[in-house]
């Protein structure tokens, strides 16, 4: 390996170097200072590995504030760097005049060329950070103080930071995006950008269904049927609309999940399936329903443990390999929350992490949640959003909160026996409402009232 005033000129133990690209990008900045603004959304000068070349970039950025037209020649760069050295602001020796003049000859001032070199520099910098993370993993794994939860979470966060550092998004003028709003105003949403819920009125309220990037909370007291509703959303998406869906169950096992799905899809009594007493008619209906169930991109996971890093890894893999669009978690309070000073802080980190995950991967994330005893202390027993356990964090991060209520769960002889209310208590993108559906517990499903 050889080095010179420019910095490393080949791959080093620290990782790959892009020194030639760095020379060209620094020279191009002198020849066309406007490149600094043009590349701002996709290039971070901190990724320039060579200290002298990085300070050339900074000097051009400083000088262009006063020399606003045309190129910035090496003499102006030299004067700025000498001034910084005199005050101690610049900690490394600068390139001398001859070196700056030679550097200037390398200029490739066109934006397309500079963008290519900037991309090469960024790739090399990401590779170096990736290798450094690998060394950190090795050190943590060999340490006697290794803690699987803390250390794996820290490494996962660091890996996500590397990926997020490559974000090339830039602010946009409203005139550049308003056309999309005009087009959407006359173009009804399709299954390509909505996930049908399986309920006509709910889909209407949500302008066609759930959207990508949303965090949906479905909350209820125990035994109200929130798992059944969660599976209903999964069936509507995967079995009836072919949308790749993952159902994470921390409560029910594979057998119970598959029994519920078969009962709902075949309209066979759940009791008959669980007891092994299906009739000939039952078996015939099961046979007709099984092919469409088998063809559905519905993935079930009955793991007894689920944390944010575990979920992130699974979602990342399935988005890439299966085109995953919907994830349903049953239920929030059973997830492993990040460590924090108290339970509310833990839940806050958990729900914030879930919301960010939905946005990051462009999926819809539905989490089932438990309500506190608030409804049981009211005369009408109806739940409120404030009944959510640790409601502040959950309510803040959720885009939609659906509260599930059944009067006959409290009063068997209720005149509304068999009815269920979906109380949409929060809807960030639209109105709230209460939608009445039918609960068919014997078939493990909720359905539209019109179907009863």
Description:
- The chain has helices at 19-31, 35-38, 51-63, 74-87, 97-104, 111-142, 148-164, 174-185, 200-205, 226-241, 254-266, 270-275, 280-295, 308-322, 343-361, 391-397; strands spanning 3-4, 7-8, 215-220, 245-249, 298-301, 326-330, 364-370, 400-405, 419-427, 433-440, 445-448.
- It is built from 16 helices and eleven strands.
- Helix 1 (19-31) crosses helix 6 and helix 11 packs across helix 13 (280-295).
- It is elongated, with a radius of gyration of 29 Å.
- With 452 residues, it is α/β, with parallel strands linked by helices.
- The termini are far apart.
- It has a nine-stranded mixed sheet with strand order 5-4-6-7-3-8-9-10-11, sandwiched between helices.
Condensed summary:
With 452 residues, the chain is of the alpha/beta class. The protein has helices spanning 19-31, 35-38, 51-63, 74-87, 97-104, 111-142, 148-164, 174-185, 200-205, 226-241, 254-266, 270-275, 280-295, 308-322, 343-361, 391-397, and strands spanning 3-4, 7-8, 215-220, 245-249, 298-301, 326-330, 364-370, 400-405, 419-427, 433-440, 445-448.
């Amino acid at each position: 390996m050889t080095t010179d005033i420019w910095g490393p000129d080949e791959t080093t133990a620290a990782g790959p170097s892009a020194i030639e690209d760095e020379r060209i990008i620094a020279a191009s900045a002198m020849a066309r200072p406007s490149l600094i603004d043009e590349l701002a959304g996709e290039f971070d000068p901190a990724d320039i590995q060579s200290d002298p070349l990085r300070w050339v970039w900074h000097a051009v950025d400083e000088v262009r504030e006063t020399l606003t037209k045309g190129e910035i020649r090496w003499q102006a760069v030299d004067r700025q760097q000498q001034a910084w050295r005199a005050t101690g602001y610049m900690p490394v020796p600068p390139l001398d005049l001859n070196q700056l003049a030679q550097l200037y000859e390398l200029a490739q001032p066109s934006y397309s060329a500079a963008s290519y070199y900037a991309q090469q520099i960024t790739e090399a910098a990401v590779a170096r950070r990736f290798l450094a993370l690998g060394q950190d993993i090795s050190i943590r794994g060999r340490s006697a103080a290794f803690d699987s939860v803390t250390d794996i979470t820290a490494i996962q966060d660091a890996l996500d930071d590397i990926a997020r550092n490559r974000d090339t998004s830039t602010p946009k003028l409203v005139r550049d995006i308003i056309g999309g709003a005009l087009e959407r105003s006359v173009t009804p949403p399709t299954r390509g950008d909505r996930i049908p819920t399986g309920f006509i009125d709910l889909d209407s309220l949500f302008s066609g269904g759930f959207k990508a990037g949303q965090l949906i909370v479905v909350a209820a007291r125990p035994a109200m049927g929130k798992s059944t509703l969660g599976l209903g959303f999964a069936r509507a998406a995967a079995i009836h609309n072919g949308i790749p869906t993952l159902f994470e169950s921390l409560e029910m096992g594979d057998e119970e999940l598959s029994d519920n799905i078969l009962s709902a899809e075949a309209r066979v009594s759940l009791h008959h399936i669980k007891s092994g007493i299906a009739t000939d008619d039952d078996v015939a209906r099961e046979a007709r329903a099984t092919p469409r169930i088998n063809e559905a991109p519905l993935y079930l996971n009955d793991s007894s443990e689920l944390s944010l890093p575990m979920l992130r890894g699974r979602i990342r893999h399935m988005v890439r390999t299966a085109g995953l669009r919907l994830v349903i978690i049953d239920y929030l309070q059973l997830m492993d929350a990040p460590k924090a000073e108290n339970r509310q802080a833990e839940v806050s980190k958990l729900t914030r992490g879930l919301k960010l995950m939905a946005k990051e991967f462009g999926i819809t994330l539905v989490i089932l949640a438990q309500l506190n005893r608030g409804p049981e202390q009211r005369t009408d027993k109806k739940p409120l959003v404030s009944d959510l356990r640790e409601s502040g964090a959950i309510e803040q991060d959720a885009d939609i909160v659906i509260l599930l209520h059944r009067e006959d769960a409290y009063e068997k002889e209720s005149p509304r026996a068999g009815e269920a209310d979906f109380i949409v208590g929060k809807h960030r993108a639209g109105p709230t409402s209460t939608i009445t559906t039918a609960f068919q517990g014997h078939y493990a499903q909720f359905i539209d009232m019109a179907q009863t």
